[in-house]
Write a structure and sequence with these properties.
The protein contains 7 helices and 16 strands. It is an alpha+beta fold and 263 residues long. The protein has a 7-stranded mixed beta sheet, sandwiched between helices. The chain has a 3-stranded antiparallel beta sheet with strand order 12-16-14, with helices on one face. Helix 1 runs antiparallel to helix 2. The chain starts with a helix and ends in an 11-residue tail after the last strand.
Length: 263
């Protein structure tokens, strides 16, 4: 499905409205609840969820919506959806609670398992990125688009998204195999946006993430010329399994970097 200009602009406007819902909570005292998996939940998550789901259902009633805050997900039912919207209404709730601004709204269109269109909105700064297969990737500045692309060739020093203070052994081993690399700290799906615009070369993720954490970012990175691959070199795919958890992955601005990584 080619995303029309009207549909693209409608989804961008919807992401911006959701950002305003989030900021209304962010700028006031708010309570913190916890879901069954102990992940945090705030009124901002729920307000953004309601805004986006209602907006997408009005825009494309024929396309189902799967959001992080959806309830009672039926595995058999969703696996029958060839096309769906995959939404993280507030990616980076922990960053939201810390009030550091590094949280986003993520909206992706999934077609037969492939993330073909994505929008990421950063509420605090107003920055917005979008990309679609075959159409390129862009950073929206005001009402104008600036085309972006990943950095190629990814010459030394490589810029790698990783925690400065809390690194697992596999991430540290990868950094050790790429001496002289610059470690860049960045929260939520902003790491994908930085790859897409050439500010980061590599984002290794060892450990589970959810499909709504990565789909919009993958669409934008791929539209910008990069890739998001599992350890076997396969692109991440969506709504294809019983679980909504991703395995390990590596996001690249320049796929040639993969040749320098440890086996």
């Amino acid at each position: 499905m080619t995303v029309s200009t009207d549909r693209r602009e409608a989804v961008i406007a919807l992401a911006r409205r959701a950002a305003l819902e989030i900021l209304a909570v962010y700028e006031s005292p708010f309570a913190i609840e916890h879901k069954q998996d102990r992940s945090p939940l705030t009124a901002a998550d729920l307000a953004s969820h309601r805004c986006i789901v209602a907006g997408l259902q009005a825009l494309t009633p024929e396309i189902p919506v799967l959001s992080e805050e959806s309830k009672d997900l039926d595995i058999a039912a969703r696996r029958e959806w060839p096309t769906l919207w995959l939404v993280d209404p507030l990616d980076g709730t922990r960053e939201f609670i810390k009030r550091n601004g590094e949280f986003t709204v993520n909206i992706a269109l999934i077609e037969h398992g492939v993330a073909t269109f994505g929008v990421i909105q950063q509420p605090v700064t107003g920055a917005l990125w979008h990309g679609a297969a075959g159409a390129g990737a862009f950073r929206r500045e005001g009402d104008a688009d600036v085309a972006i692309c990943s950095r190629k060739p990814a010459s030394a020093p490589l810029r790698i998204a990783a925690s400065r203070s809390h690194r697992d052994a596999r991430t540290q081993a990868l950094l050790d195999a790429l001496p002289g690399s610059e470690v860049v700290g960045c929260g939520s799906s902003l790491k994908f946006c930085r790859i897409a615009e050439g500010g980061i070369d590599l984002y290794p993720r060892f450990g589970p993430t959810s499909e709504w954490d990565t789909a919009a970012g993958q669409a934008i990175v791929e539209a910008a010329g990069g890739a998001v691959l599992d350890p076997r070199g396969r692109p991440l795919r969506y709504n294809q399994r019983d679980t909504l958890l991703n395995g390990d992955f590596l996001a690249f601005g320049d796929i040639a970097v993969r040749n320098a990584l440890p086996a």
